[in-house]
């Protein structure tokens, strides 16, 4: 698994379980996991040793009982993650909902998604996908390397959430909102556009 893969896995786990930590802590954790993999020592026990280095405050603030509990979440996520699941090439995703219209829209370079659902959901996914594509382009041009990699991973995770049959809009907002404070005028404007699409979709009946 690449560093991008580890980052996406960690972000998903934190998002799904409401876990928060600083970017510095997140980077150190990802670096530790990557080093374990490079040395051929990526085991559940080694992951426990890595997270033992995190502060007691981290566990207290996130309502985690022990490093072992957090390590188990990480290990389960790492175990099921596939190397090709983070930056797919050509892929097709099917959406199922109240079938009133069928639509196909672009979700990224070389990737399309087949949508079966109502017009409002289609409009939301199209607007959200367009905004994220602009955000990716702006990230490449405006962000420094480490921040760029972090941004692209978060965008991919948010995009995957949007493609689910019943996307969790609160998770999508929680992922994207912190990036409004980042530098890069085009980048933050695109993130704001993506969040606007999320908010607008919650105001429409049936969305």
Write structural notes for this entry.
The protein has 207 residues and is mainly alpha-helical. It contains 9 helices and 3 strands; from the N terminus they run αααααβββαααα. It has helices at residues 3-17, 23-38, 44-51, 56-61, 67-80, 119-142, 145-162, 169-176, 185-202; strands spanning 91-95, 101-108, 111-117. Strands 1-3-2 form a 3-stranded mixed beta sheet, covered by helices on one side. Strand 2 and strand 3 form a beta hairpin. The longest helix has 24 residues, at 119-142. The radius of gyration is 18 Å and the shape is globular. Mean pLDDT is 78; it is low at 82-117.
For the structure shown, list the relevant keywords:
globular, three-stranded mixed β-sheet, 61% helix, 207 residues, mainly alpha, 9 helices
């Amino acid at each position: 698994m690449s560093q991008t893969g580890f980052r996406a896995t960690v972000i998903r786990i934190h998002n799904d379980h409401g876990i928060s930590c600083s970017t510095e802590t997140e980077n150190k954790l990802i670096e530790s996991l990557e080093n374990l993999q490079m040395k051929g020592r990526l085991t559940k026990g080694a992951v426990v040793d890595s997270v033992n280095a995190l502060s007691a405050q981290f566990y207290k603030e996130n309502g985690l009982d022990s490093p072992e509990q957090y390590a188990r979440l990480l290990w389960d996520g790492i175990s099921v993650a596939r190397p090709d699941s983070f930056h797919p090439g050509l892929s097709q995703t099917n959406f199922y909902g109240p079938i009133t219209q069928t639509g196909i829209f672009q979700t990224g370079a070389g990737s399309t998604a087949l949508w079966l659902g109502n017009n409002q959901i289609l409009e939301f996914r199209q607007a959200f996908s367009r905004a994220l594509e602009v955000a990716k382009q702006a990230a490449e041009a405006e962000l420094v390397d480490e921040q760029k990699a972090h941004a692209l991973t978060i965008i991919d995770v948010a995009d995957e959430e949007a493609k689910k049959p019943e996307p969790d809009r609160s998770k999508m907002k929680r992922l994207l909102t912190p990036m409004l404070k980042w530098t890069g005028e085009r980048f933050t404007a695109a993130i704001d556009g993506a969040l606007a699409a999320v908010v607008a979709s919650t105001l429409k009946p049936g969305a």
